[in-house]
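User: Hi! I'm working on a homework problem where we have to compare a predicted structure to a textbook description. Could you give me the structure for the chain below?
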Amino acid sequence: MKQSRKIFICIAATLISVIILMATLGFFKTHEIHSRIKILADATAIPALFSLGLFGLISIGKSGMFDIFGYGVSRLSSLFIPKRQIAHTSYYDYKTKTHTKNPSFALLLYIGIPLLICSILLTILYYKV
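Assistant: Happy to help. Predicted structure tokens:
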């Protein structure tokens, strides 16, 4: 998939989630500016924290921190399942085979940080007004 298409899909999904959250929280029902600012702050904070949390989990998973657990489970399951063949004889072979070039998920970071900044600014504005 082209990079521009990925960017468009991520931004569109984020905007749709913000609009759905705004509708769910009652943004279109209220006419007070004070409550609308609060709803906007909440509607931008939820997708921001979701995308930043997802980026954190993916980056930890891609770093290879939990590879030893995957290798151990595959070795243990090969002891109890007789027809299962072990493709990797050593941990080094397993690590070199599993760590191929993976796509970058930095787009989640680039979407999450501006939404979080927007949410913080709207929260500050909410308490100032």
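For your comparison, note the following. Residues 58 and 105 are 8 Å apart (CA to CA). The first helix runs from residue 3 to 25. Good luck with the assignment!
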